[in-house]
Amino acid sequence: MPYLTNIVARRIQWGECDPAGIVFYPRYFEMFDASTTALFERALGMTKYQFTNAYGAVGYPMVDTRARFLIPARFGDDVIIETTVAEFRRSSFDVRHRILKDGKLAVEGSETRVWAVRDKADPSRIKSQPIPRDIIARFEAG
Amino acid sequence: MPYLTNIVARRIQWGECDPAGIVFYPRYFEMFDASTTALFERALGMTKYQFTNAYGAVGYPMVDTRARFLIPARFGDDVIIETTVAEFRRSSFDVRHRILKDGKLAVEGSETRVWAVRDKADPSRIKSQPIPRDIIARFEAG
Amino acid sequence: MPYLTNIVARRIQWGECDPAGIVFYPRYFEMFDASTTALFERALGMTKYQFTNAYGAVGYPMVDTRARFLIPARFGDDVIIETTVAEFRRSSFDVRHRILKDGKLAVEGSETRVWAVRDKADPSRIKSQPIPRDIIARFEAG
Amino acid sequence: MPYLTNIVARRIQWGECDPAGIVFYPRYFEMFDASTTALFERALGMTKYQFTNAYGAVGYPMVDTRARFLIPARFGDDVIIETTVAEFRRSSFDVRHRILKDGKLAVEGSETRVWAVRDKADPSRIKSQPIPRDIIARFEAG
């Protein structure tokens, strides 16, 4: 059974585009990061500020990410971003994003992140930790 | 009679915040730029891509802007951005923004922009031009 | 006697420009923030990570900032950013920036910041605090 | 024989980091984009503005990119970015980036881009085109 999927609708902004008039591709990764958070916020019913505090985490830093750009988008274009978790492992998980423009796949993204906490021995450091079971359960309930 | 006001509701994103955990202030100017565009899009019933093409303009570059930061906001905070044109002049205009958090004024911004077109003699250059009268009329109708 | 001035030379990047082909103005505030930090790093002989830790501070959040844009810059343009502290007060200070392109003033920025620490009673909050005297002294020595 | 490699040294900025205190990963893609341009600028002895105009191109939009994040970096960290073209094909090419911190591989990036021009039939569209032979030759000469 697939995990919860979240959908974000947004308009491409002028400031996200480059001199070619299309989205400067690092902005897609900003959209993906916001989309992963929107998915977690929906699954957990809390903002990221709330759930990182509730679980004593610092977030879910990126380990590996990839994106393919199929159709360019420009300012004023309305897009849909579909985001879902493809797999939860012990302390890492995979997310998939699909950006659709006029119903067609424009950008495809995948990412592997780890659930992370501050290292108690050295709070300036971050380390991965098992994803709380009840968090995963909230994605299954979808 | 005041000009049209537009309101944007948004959640502060993780990626907009800095190591202090609060919004990195240049991001507020990105929000303001998007808010000015949202106001124009609402007034004109077209996206910025559509109205810049319809009027042969390249946009409304910034001439002078100021912002005061009263209450910090952090990721997960929901804010309201109120945007209105304070004054239209021949080829320049003033915009005012107010960002509210929990109903309180958190950030206040003002900006002076010019209506700009490509210079026909040298398309690599941009120059100001009178704001089309029917554009101003659409802000009055609000 | 004026305080220490720092100069940063940089090339405008493609990703800092918008569909009009010129710098998207919020990027100038990113440049200013980096320039203020470069000035502090030079004055104190430490990186921002080092001096915020050394002084138990979280940084110098922005209170009020303004910029005037006189000459547009586009990707590939080489600019010079001159940054200096105009005034130190008890817990706040004013910074001035001048961006020069081909020796001419292209952008002028001013900012008021506060020296900030975490609130011991509530570490999720930030509060201003007097600027350490020896920090100010390092700007005078220049 | 490998193609020209370019090296960029830079300090991680406060504004590039997130509330966890480490680089917000989309900023690495901004660094990669600037590094690819720095490589082209060095190979061709022109700025991107100059060489896109000289060759009638709009740039080299991204088709596919991936990055792996091995060691986190935070504001104040000095990193080295090594960038090289792995392969030139007819109208696309592959770039490799390695970000080193304290001599250790911190981030690894790869990208496939296309050489692009405006579509003469519809200037609002961008299309790929064979990479000029003399551009490739400049990367071999290194």
List the helices and strands and how they pair.
The structure is a homotetramer of 142-residue chains.
Chain A: E1 5-11, H1 26-44, H2 48-54, E2 62-69, E3 78-88, E4 92-101, E5 104-114, E6 116-118, E7 126-128, H3 133-140
Q: What does this protein structure show overall?
A:
Four copies of one chain form a homotetramer. Chain A has 142 residues and is of the alpha+beta class. Chain A has three helices and seven strands, in the order βααββββββα. In chain A, strands 1-3-4-5-2 form a five-stranded antiparallel sheet, with helices on one face. Chain A has a two-stranded antiparallel sheet with strand order 6-7. The longest helix of chain A has 19 residues, at 26-44. The termini of chain A are close together. The model of chain A has no long low-confidence stretch (mean pLDDT 96). The A-D interface holds A 18-22, 24-27, 29-30, 33, 58-59, 61-69, 72, 116, 124, 126 and D 18-22, 24-27, 29-30, 33, 58-59, 61-69, 72, 116, 124, 126.
How large is the radius of gyration of chain A?
16 Å
Largest sheet of chain A: 5 strands, antiparallel
* Low-confidence spans of chain A: none
Distance between the termini of chain A: 10 Å
The largest beta-sheet of chain A arranges its strands as: 1-3-4-5-2
What are the main properties of this structure?
142 residues, homotetramer, five-stranded antiparallel beta sheet, 3 helices
Summarize the structure.
Chain A is α+β, with helices and mostly antiparallel strands. Chain A is built from three helices and seven strands; from the N terminus they run βααββββββα.
